[in-house]
Amino acid sequence: MRKIEKRSNCPISRTLDIFGDKWTLLIMRDLAFKGFQFYNEFLDSGEGIATNVLSDRLKMLEEKDIIVSKKYEKLKTRKQYGLTKRGIASVPILLEMLVWGFKFDDTTEVVPEFYERFLNDKENVLKEVMAALEEGMNKRFC
After folding, report:
1. Phi/psi of residue 10, each to 5°?
2. Three-state SS for 83?
3. Which residue pairs, CB below 8 angstroms and at least 24 apart, start in 53-61?
């Protein structure tokens, strides 16, 4: 597993120690906004993450209490992933990144209705996303 070294006591630096690589943020995106729950869903998300990198990031996020895994009830050999309260707390940051990326790169893909709703009613959309995650609903938002 990727070793996380503390570079400083700066809150931004500490956050980057955990979320500072693209794969971690993409896994968080997939959990929060795409409703992904299973290893193969992350693997097939389209960005081409290697199996060893995916396993490493999932282990690290679980170790940091950002995600949780449990045995899938329908198939005990399969793990099901979800966000913890700590992971759900990162959703506002991820939403802002989504908006920034869509605003400044016209080749990005996002459901336009979701983007417009978020821009026009940020508070309620954020509440909706966070409530769905807290209830354990794996809903696709974008």
Report:
1. -65, 130
2. strand
3. 53/23, 54/23, 54/27, 56/1, 56/2, 57/2, 57/21, 57/23, 57/24, 57/27, 58/27, 59/1, 60/1, 60/2, 60/4, 60/18, 60/24, 61/18, 61/24, 61/27, 61/28, 61/87
pLDDT digits (tens, 9 = 90+) for 8-42: 888 888 888 888 889 999 999 999 999 999 999 99
Does an H or E element contain 76, and which? Answer: strand 75-83
DSSP-derived pairing of the beta strands 75-83 and 67-72: antiparallel
Give me the mean pLDDT over the 106-116 stretch.
77
Contact yes or no for 142/115 (Cβ under 8 A): yes
- On whether the CB atoms of residues 28 and 87 are closer than 8 A, the answer is yes
**Which residue, chain included where needed, has tokens 């959990």?**
31
